[in-house]
Amino acid sequence: MSPPPLLLPLYLSLLLALGAAPARALTRLQELYTWRGVDFQFPNAAVRAAAIRSGAYVEGNPVPLDVDVYQGESGQRVFVTLPRLNPGTPTTLATVVEDPRAGAAYVPGGSPGSAPLLTAYPDWAWNRQGDCDALTSVFRMQVDQQCGRLWALDTGRVDILSRFELICPPKLVVFDLRGGDRVLKKHRFPDDVLQAGSLPVTVAVDVRGADRHSCGSAFAYVADVTEYGLVVYDLFNDRSWRVNHKYFYPYPTSGTFNVAGTTFDLMDGVLGLALSPALPQEGGERRLYFHSLASVRESWVSTGVLRNASLFADGANAARGLFRLSEGERPSQAAAEAMDPHGVLFFSLLARNSLNCWVAATGSPYNARSLVELDQDDRALQFASGVKVVTGRDGAPEVWMLTSRFQRLMGSGLDPTDFNFRVLRAPVRLLVKGTKCDQRRGGVEAPQRPSYGQGHRPGSGSWREAVRKYW
Predict the structure, then answer these.
(1) Signal peptide position in this chain (predicted)?
(2) Cα separation of 205 and 207, whole Å?
(3) pLDDT-based confidence at residue 24 (cuts at 50, 70, 90)
């Protein structure tokens, strides 16, 4: 039953007061790139045509999953991963063919960006499927700005959403971004480190020092999402070992996902990894924060524990009691995460299509009351599969995200007429300004949005009024 025309304004006002307002749009993040489907800058038209004929390139099949950024002497480079989830992905590691928008001034909430081409990194030969000396299928990578390196984690698998076929040994490849993209190290994981069904999907790089002289002393922590373990790689000694713990497993009660109206079951284990800054109270050690995809808890462990290979000899774990699990929970599952130099953790709540933060540095409890929602958009923030804190052009930290609508791959598939993939960014200082995550001023007591678990819900009158005054 519709309200009488004369009462329509009052009716709409009541709806707004009751929280039935339209979904919010981005207010702090800026859309830098948007794609319906990604396309590539091949060496020439003939190579492109041959790739299409052979099935090496199937338009609409490539799925970008992660993003990272390097600030070099010649300018900014943006990297994107495209794991070979389905046939027809011609390159698994790519750079964005530079677009003028990439150098434009940051505009909060910015307008939709361009859809630039991607090109193979470091070149097309390095991305030939079936060449085990090259890259096979990369889910995530990490740029090490301090030492000018890119660490690419290669799963060795193709057709991951169907056949899950292992065609090459999984490996970690380190490229020199300052030295012509040459290979600095290639480490193939031994059979006793990864298991038959392993899928290493996330890497976090730990440089043991604050200057370039420390670059040789680095460790990488690798999440094995399907065999529920962590792999530690020691660059100096070129060796790796496996760490097992129950906190790397999925939680059955969190195995059902609902993302933007798509519901699916996925029992994925440890996936999100984030390194804290060095902690003086812990002897200068860092913490590795981690969580399983199918979970609503956060865990952490000192990197000093992980670097001690003797604790994990022969598949044992002599340090089980040194792994920590949050007592509280977040309101939904999360995928990727990253931490800034002030100890603020950034991640996306998948059920909320939001970017959130939590202050780990102050010892704040990890629970719904402690989380802050920084931005939310049901259109632009569906399934943030890549989250990074990078060095911006001005040297200050920025949050970069890649949203992939991955949930649709678990359902009816991507809609080729819709914008499916986005790269978004925002300076950390502007993201956290006025919230408890602003650690430059020790946090503030301004209204947070929304206050999960405190009797308010997104859209409620009291919360809306507080945000209206704040913004």
Answers:
(1) 1-25
(2) 6
(3) low
CB atoms within 10 A of CB 464: 18
At 178-201, the pLDDT tens digits run: 999 999 999 999 999 999 999 999
User: Percentage helix, strand, coil, to 5, in the chain?
Assistant: 15, 35, 50
Ramachandran assignment for 350, one of left (phi > 0), alpha (psi -120 to 50 degrees), beta (any other): alpha
- As a whole number of angstroms, the distance between CA 280 and CA 158 comes to 43
State the virtual CA torsion across 248, 251, 255, 260 in degrees, nearest 10: -80
Minimum mean pLDDT range among 154-158, 184-188, 453-457: 453-457
Contact between residue 356 and residue 346 where contact means Cβ atoms under 8 Å apart: yes
Q: What is the Cα–Cα distance from 231 to 366, expressed in whole angstroms?
A: 25
Domains delineated in the chain: 23-470 (2.120.10.30)
Tell me the three state secondary structure of residue 463: helix
Nearest to 400 by CA among 415, 390, 410: 390
8 Å CB contact between 344 and 359: yes
Instruction: Report the alpha-carbon distance of residue 329 to residue 368 in Å, rounded.
Output: 6
Note whether 457 and 450 are within 8 A (CB).
yes
Supply the pTM of this predicted model: 0.90
Rounded distance between C-alpha atoms, residue 173 and residue 170, angstroms? 10
Residues with Cβ < 8 Å from 7, sequence gap 6 or more? none
Indicate if the pLDDT at residue 99 is higher than 80. no
